[in-house]
Amino acid sequence: MSLFPSPPLHPLSQLGGNRVLFHVPCRVAKVVQVGIFFLSTARLSGEGCSLILKPSRVVVGFGESVSVSCEATRPVRVLGWESAIGTPHTQEDQSVQWKVDSLIDWIEEPICYGVFFKAPRQCEEKLNLVLYKSPDSVSIRLVNHTGPMMEGKEYQLLCEVQNVAPVQYLTLRWYRGQTEVYKHSFSDLTSSSPVQVSSTLVITPTKAENEAEYKCVAELELGPEGPQPPPTVSSEPLTAYVLFPPTFFSPETEVLELTEGDGITLNCTAAGNPAPAYSWQSSHPIEERVKEEAVITSSSLLPGTYTCAASNTLEKKSKQFIVKAKTKGKGEV
User: Boundaries of each Ig-like domain copy (predicted)?
Assistant: First the structure.
């Protein structure tokens, strides 16, 4: 007499604990009788299980095909797969395949089970399956601000990622130019289906960072079984235009000696955004053509004090040049 059911058992009711009531057809010679049996639903899993999954961990892209083999390491009555998609697949061979042509079920958790001739008679192994999807888009923007930024003021940049899964494998990397400045992981989240997430970067720009480009890169770090290199999607760069007042390259007062007949240069160049405008003042006449230049080179300047002003919409700064006549040494004519 064989007590193993064919087709598989279907529970009638739960009796509590690990006991379930089943309706089981039993074959005795050619007569089929119906009996009521109490069977344990407990299944052994883990190291003591006599099932091997090949591969044991699978990383598959949304809509891609997947195939996994389940092998029994000792004689087995029935070997099969329990899966949310498709019909249950069982057979009496030592191995059985789970195969999907296009995997699109985010809650799929395939389990291979075996019913053996000897104890432990029931055993199962759950497939470590990772179904992933790269983001539809990654974008970056300023929060509550438009236009240029002010030097020394705090701003927030927001990176938004649309429809990525699984989020716990996602890392967002912030870059200024080619330098990574911040990394944000989402390992504390557990959603298996696509979600929208965001990350914030706080910056205090300096004049040295004017026209620096920021970008956000979404990277799915799926482990050695996943694609290499890891899938990445990058935002378009955001250029930071930083406004700052004029800053002289040499702010201190300069003293220059004037040799009669030789030219002399007064350099008032300053950095600034917007670009500075220049003006000159002195008790001596200055040629009109150079009054708005950053640099004056002339052989006709007279000894005295010359003041240069560099100004933009933020501030006006001044610098002085003191021109002295070079005294003749002994023996000079």
Answer: 135-234, 251-324
Under 8 Å between Cβ of 297 and 267: no
Quick one: which H or E segment has residue 123? strand 122-126
Is 167 exposed, middle or buried (CB count within 10 Å of its CB: 0-12, 13-18, 19+)?
buried
Residue 7 has φ and ψ, to the nearest 5°, of -75, 180
β-strands 270-273, 128-132 pairing = unpaired
Q: Residue 170 and residue 324: Cα distance in Å, rounded? A: 67
175 and 181 Cβ atoms separated by less than 8 Å: yes
| CB neighbour list of residue 49: distance below 8 Å, 6 or more residues apart | 123, 124, 125
Q: How far is Cα of residue 76 from the mean position of the Cα atoms in its chain?
A: 46
- CATH number for the domain running over 137-240: 2.60.40.10
Tokens standing for residue 3: 């007590």
**36's tokens:** 């009521």
> Which helix (H) or strand (E) element contains residue 249?
none
pTM of the model: 0.75
Q: Find all residues with CB under 8 Å of 193, minimum gap 6, and list them.
A: 106, 107, 165
CA distance 11 to 27: 19
Residue type at 116 in one-letter notation? F
What confidence tens digit (pLDDT) does each residue in 134-177 have?
999 999 999 999 999 999 999 999 999 999 999 999 999 999 99
CATH code of 44-132, in short, is 2.60.40.10
String of DSSP letters for 78-95 = EEEEE-SSS--EEESSSE
Dist. CA 159–CA 201, nearest whole Å: 8
Tokens of 17: 């604990």
160 phi, psi to nearest 5 deg: -115, 130
Give pLDDT tens digits for 19-53.
444 444 443 333 333 333 334 444 555 556 889 99
* CA 57/CA 222 separation, integer angstroms: 11
